[in-house]
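Quick start: read one record
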Amino acid sequence: MPLSVEFVDYLYSICAGLTDRDLLETFVEQAMKIEDYVRDIGGVFERWVSQEVGISFSSPDPAELAESAVRKVDGQGTHQGV
C-alpha cells in the first residue's frame, strides 16, 4: 500500500507518462484507504517489507557496439551479440 500521495510521482515515472496522472492519483488515494477499511470490517492488516533486490547493469560503450556491428556486417567478427 502506498504510504503517501508522493507515490503518484513514482508511478507516473515508471509508466513513462503513458498513464493519466489523474488515474494514478485516484488509485493512490483509494489504495491508501484499504488499511483502514480492512480494520473497519474486523480484519487485521499487517504491513511487511519485502526483501529488496538490487541489480545494476553497466552501460556498454557505444563505440564498441558500433564497431562490433560493423564487424558482423562485414563478416569479420565472431557472433557474441551486440
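The chain is about 50% helix and 0% strand.
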